[in-house]
Design brief:
176 residues; alpha+beta; 26% strand; rod-shaped
Length: 176
């Protein structure tokens, strides 16, 4: 990455810091010293980007001394970097991406609640199926032997074995 000479009115540059911005200035690195008293040799900027799906979540950056294997591969850039009169200077940047799990909270909650509801219904039916005969026996003991829980209570029968006749209520007093 080329860095331009700052306007110093002819003075030598003693400290040069840069800040990288990503995702439309939403995610920024701290200010990093790439030239100056505290920087030994040509620096390597190590940038770690954290993302979840297509969204950039954060960034970390730090300055490392350039390793020898990279120094041999970029010898001309190193000579230009050491030359105080040559501008623009170049800084090598190494990007690393760290993927975070992309989990939608609402979808996960929906799946969890639906699964719990299905398990509850299945366990309820399983429990009721296991005690169905006991419930039927209990109802026969309480109500009587003629009661069938699937058919409902028995109808009252008249004198000839027929159901009792329906007598509609005509209003008025119930006392005669």
């Amino acid at each position: 990455m080329p860095i331009n000479k700052p306007g110093t009115n002819g003075q030598e540059v003693t400290d040069y810091r840069i800040q990288l911005s990503f995702d439309g200035d939403r995610v920024l690195t701290p200010w990093l010293a790439v030239l100056g008293k505290n920087v030994e040799g040509m620096p390597l900027l190590e940038v770690q980007l954290r993302r979840a799906g297509d969204e950039l979540k954060g960034v970390k950056a730090w300055v490392l001394p350039l390793p020898d294997e990279l120094l041999l591969g970029h010898a001309t850039l190193y000579e230009e970097y050491k030359n105080t009169t040559h501008w623009p200077k170049h800084v090598l940047v190494h990007y690393r991406f760290h993927d975070e799990g992309d989990v939608d909270f609402h979808s996960g909650l929906y799946v969890l609640l639906t699964t719990g509801l299905l398990l509850f219904v299945l366990l309820s039916f399983n429990t009721l199926a296991g005690v169905q005969s006991k419930v039927a026996q209990f109802l026969k003991d309480v109500v009587g032997s003629e009661y069938d829980p699937l058919m409902g209570p028995p109808l009252q029968e008249g004198a000839a074995g027929q159901p009792a006749p329906y007598i509609p209520f005509k209003g008025g007093s119930h006392v005669e």
